[in-house]
Amino acid sequence: MIDNNKLNHFAELAIKVGVNLQKDQFLVVNCPVECAYIARIIVEQAYKAGAGQVFVNWRDDVLSRLNMQYASEDVLKDIPQWQIDKNDYYIKKGVALISVAASDPAVFAGLDAAKIRRVSTASAQAQKNFHNATMSNVLRWCVVSVPTSKWAQKVFPDCNESEAVDKLWEAIATIMRLDKDDPTKAWQDHCDNLSDRAEFLNNNAFKAIHLKNAKGTDVTIGLPDNHVWLAAKEKAQDGVEFLANIPTEEVFTAPHRLTANGRVVNALPLCENGEIIDDFFIEFKDGRIVDFGAKQGYETLKGLIETDEGTHYLGEIALVSKQSPIAKQNRLFFNTLFDENASCHLAIGKGYPSCVKDYLQLDEKQLFERGVNNSVEHVDFMIGTPDMFVEGIKKDGTHVTIFENGDWVK
Ligand code: ZN
Ligand code: ZN
After folding, report:
1. How far is the C-alpha of 90 from the C-alpha of 133, rounded, in Å?
2. From ligand 1's centre to the CA of 249, what distance in Å?
3. What is the pTM of this model?
4. Nearest to 17 by CA among 145, 180, 143
């Protein structure tokens, strides 16, 4: 079992490095009931760090599944006004938001995939304001993960429940650098490294990025004028820095939504609403998805791509070295927070507004005209392999190699 010292470091990282909680600020913690212990530690540490008030929203996979199974689609799609009001209250209060992401990857397995998709779209629509507030950094937010037994056993299927949880904690502790003498300092150093990579890409101001590997990915993705590569820490709209994901290993930006051409083939399975999509490809022409296929989870992939117009276009391109401590674990975590940090990835759906300069001066329409995609969804899928080749193409046509054999060249 993970010791208390590491759990305290974990909470401290989420509060001080993650959301960078300020004195008297309100904090919202989303947490599965199964991991109540970590919510309690976070709440205590948050108050010790000066939180004004801390709210906890509990989630329970078992209840979510029962609702999805038995309640009618109409009922589930009718999101109560009080839930929307609650979100508006959070925005008004300028809360910081810590989400403990630890869902059972198979929570909805075997249920009606189309119903799940429509319900989740309705819920995303109703929560659009709140989603936008996090995506455009009005609020400071941070996603972390702790093991649940179902999740741990999915990752370590040969272990019994308690062994699996211990093993997953061990992996997370390594990935989150909780075994370092000073995990907070280790994260500051790591963030500085990633920022240097982002600076290198920004200084080059590439017109497009070309990705290619033996698996069949061969795609050129254009970038908006004045795009910004981001890594690790970001500035919220109040000017305070925060780290949206712990762990994070990626350097990412928003593609120009009308410029992707070519084919991408997944490198890791995509776990979407508890369903696995694997052995899939997506083909783009002038940014739009023109063809796709999957040996596993085709209907789920189709549902995802057909969510709205925006899910037919890319919203993110992210570079991750194969040297990432998550890649080195060499296993699928069935959890985007970890899997997306193991491998270069793309996302279909909404692009992050902060990936273009002066985004604060641009409204939704102007951002869209600049090329930043819009959608109710943002779903990452992994394409990076150990042989990944990535090059940047400059405005004058020169090519600069960025990745060779899955790693940064400099
Ligand atoms: Zn990403
Ligand atoms: Zn993403």
Report:
1. 10
2. 9
3. 0.83
4. 143
